[in-house]
# Entry
Amino acid sequence: MHTIQNYINGNFHDPVSNDWIDNYCPANGEIYGKIPNSSKDDVENAYIAAQSAFPSWSQTTLEERSRILIKISELIEENLQRFAEAESKDNGKPISLAKVVDIPRAASNFRFFGNAITQFASESHESIGQDAVNYTLRQPLGVVGCISPWNLPLYLFTWKIAPAIAAGNCVVSKPSEITPMTAYLLGDICNQAGLPKGVLNIVHGLGSTTGQAIIEHPDIKAISFTGGTTTGSHIAKVAAPMFKKLSLELGGKNPNIIFADCDYNEMLETTVLSSFSNQGQICLCGSRIFVEASIYKQFKQDFIAKVKRLKVGHPSEPDTNIGALVSKSHLEKVIQYIEIAKQENGTVLCGGHEVSVKGFENGYYLEPTIIEVSTDECRINQEEVFGPVVTIMPFNTEDNVLQMANKVKYGLSATIWTNDLKRTMRLSNQIQAGIVWVNTWMMRDLRTPFGGVKASGVGREGGFEALRFFTEAKNVCIKY
Ligand code: TXE
# Structure
């Protein structure tokens, strides 16, 4: 059993109230540790530490900030195995995935923003004929709040923290209570890298207690949040009357649109990944697959055959493709959606059942599941399941598939498979999404804007967008 503590002002602390919650291992369903359920008092202590660190950190040279961020990145890389094991144990994801995606990406986030801040520039406007010049200052906000989810724990936690710190802010952060471990380990790394005390504070606990205390705090100037749409909407209601800056990256129900003229084999390989990577628990997964009618039968046959070969197993086995879902309640939610689909006349083409992994019978395992639907309007096609479940259905025309692609409340990402350039341009322009991938999926360049439209959120992360979010623009006008 291990005990996770809050990281406040560079030190590790028990929660003031001595209130704890259990930490579960999804691979075997056992409690393997406890984490603080931090109260308002802990958040206040974190705030005070952050506020005290701000005057000095905001005046620290960009070179020095950059050096420290890059050092954090290097230390994460040096501890790759340890971090990957911790992430896999906490989340249930295959350790092989954590080693090549989650942890390297967390390191890249620090390296990227460590470099980006040295290139972040603002505008100057010469007011010709008025003997004046205007320039823009981009100043850090002060103390900001970062709240992250459980699906890509360290990856998404650092995606927020790195730009916040790089821009000169001090942070009160909360990882998901379901997957707190790697954020906890990060505290020690920050100390080793020489990050000054109080620049980053990590408080653990439930959304309704610790998270709520962060979003309600009157002096926390901005909230960067990734998580469910319902939670995002609640955060907006609480934070908006206090005029906090908000960046909300929420759910998705992303279309994967496959035309007959695509590179078939590449599409098939990638579609397996875009459907089931991380047990389908990525907001960018393509959970609604639309296939042009002329290749539908072939696709259905090949896709089922490939998915049946995926191995559901213990996350630490090197050949495991699908690990455990993150929690018992999440597993139950996903199973319930499969039942709803059946009631709505969906046909389960493969999967649909829990898996009992030998020796780990109480783990939260589920077969990768393909459901054929005859209408795009059923609940399984409209609501975010966030598990290893995709729907497939044929389409006849570009107009028809565009309409179906856009007829959901979400608008995070979309994938299009075609070799027709004009069609690519038409669809990319008209699809309601923040990110469109053509002939690929999840290819990321950290300079690009990242975020969604409609119920998938507001604001953009990534590159200079993130640095703009974490700074306030101030215009200075000088008459000479
Ligand atoms: O997320 P929550 P949940 C979707 C997915 C999933 C659903 C619910 O469909 O099934 O959301 O998941 C914190 N004030 N996504 O309930 O609650 C919480 O502690 C402040 C999509 O697990 O949104 C955690 O740190 N914070 C998604 C974070 O919010 C609060 C990733 C996210 O948890 C809070 C995860 C409050 N009142 C789930 N309540 C994506 N977009 O990638 C909760 N939190």
Notes: The chain has a mean pLDDT of 98. The longest helix spans residues 95-119. Residues 147-151, 174, 176-177, 207-208, 211-212, 215, 226-228, 231, 234-235, 249-251, 283, 384, 386 surround TXE (CB under 6 Å).
